[in-house]
Structures are given as structure tokens and as C-alpha cells.
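Re: the 292-residue chain
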Amino acid sequence: MKTTSSYLRVLLFVIVAFVLFEVTIDSGDQWAFQKYPIIWAVLGVLTLFAVAIEIAVEAMRSILFRSLKAESKERFLQLQSEAKQNNWFNKTYQKLVGKSKPIEEESEIILDHNYDGIRELDNQLPPWWVYMFYLTIIFAGVYLTRYEILGADDTHTEYEKEVAQAEKEIAEWKKTAKDLVDVNTVTLLTDKEDLDKGKAIFTTNCVACHKADGGGGIGPNLTDEYWILGGGIKNVFHTISEGGRDGKGMVAWKGDLKPLEIQEVASYVLSLQGTTPANPKEPQGEIWKEEN
């Protein structure tokens, strides 16, 4: 049985199947085999199927070979040997090896020079080794010219430039990244979609203290111009995030709400300014005016 070629065919089959699974199955950022473990079972079954085919083919070949006459067997083996020597792999291998003597024939090229029992071997270097050596010379010349003569950036300088560029791009991205908003970068949202999200958060978490229309209950009235801890988007954002006065104010919501959600509900709260609640609570705090 040609076990080596059989193994290679089975291995090639497994690799092709693996690649096809990865290319054809949408698994997002994960490998398809990670997201869908069932693929391992499918690949295992296909591998067993491929192995069974190889065994069956080799068994049929062996049966047919035994049925041949002696002369036919000899001719078959001769043709098989010639085909093996003339295939692409062997031809390529011979070109790479060149005229180097194999280990079995090295005794023919040992020189007379002898030093303390160590004798010199006059074998030719294989072409692949010589080509690699020439490539290292060319690479060294290009490297020397580029970095020592022309003064191109070395890896350390390139790294520093890339880090600086990345930091600049991150800073620009943070300016418009809502999920990274904080008390210093928060802005008032006015889009209906954002305000609707803020209203949903307010309805779920805030109506118990401020009532659905913002008129105030346990908490202060949110519709007038009086504020205990200051008005405006930055102050309201900070109050919701960090909480109100110690011991008697609102709890901090930063552990329950994301920064973007706090921005949305703060914007909705400010949209209640000037509305008329059913039973408004008496003003608390001081009148707050936006500074220009």
C-alpha cells in the first residue's frame, strides 16, 4: 500500500474541507469551528470517509497486482518506477539538490586532508542553499542602502510615528463617539430618536420620584427653572451619574446606566423645561441660567 501518498491525499482533503467550511459559513469574528462545534463532527466523518476510500482503492490495486503474471508485474513495477522518477516533485527536488552526493556516496569525495581525525568532505553545495546565500547578500545591500545611506526611518521611529497617528485618530474618534461621553464632553441631544430613548429610561427609572410629567414628587420638579445642583446638560449629566446630595439626594446611576444612556435621559429631562405638569411641586434650589 502506498501509505505516504494516501496520507497526503487525506491530509489535502481535510485541509480543503476546513478551508471550505471557513469560507462558506458566516461565523462573525470567530472561527467557524469555534462557533459551531458540530463542524468538527462533520469533518471527522468526512475524514473517515476519505480514509475508507483510500483503503478500498489500495486494496483493489493490491488485488489486481497479485492477479498479474510475473512478466506483467515486472513491467508494471518498472513503469511505476519511471513515472515516480519523472514526476514534478522528483524533478524539482533534483534541481534543488543539484549534483550533491547523497550520504551513502560521500565516501567517494572525502579529501586526503586529515586533522586530528577530522577529514574534509568535497561535496557541492545544493543550489537552493547557494540561491539563499545570494539573496542574503542582495538583502544586505538593499538594507544598507535604505537605512544607512538614504536614512530611512528605522523600526523604532516608524513605531513612534504610528503610535502618534493612532493617538490622533483615537482623539478624533472620541469627539463623536457617544458611548465614550463623559461630563466634560457631553452635549445636549435634540433628535427625536435620542429623546425617545431618554424618555423610555426616565419612565423606567425616574417616574417614582419625579412623576411621569416631571412635576416632582419625592424628587424636585424638573419643569421649572430652579435647580438644586445646577441645570444645563453637564450638571444634569453629573447629577444623574454621580447622584445628588449625600444622605438625601438621588442615588448615583452610573452603575446601572451607560454614559450614552445617561446623556439621553439628561437630554430628555432638559426637554421638559417649560412644560406644564398636572401637579407641579414647589420650586427648589435656585434659578439657573446657561452661561454664554
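Residues 1 and 62 are 7 Å apart (CA to CA).
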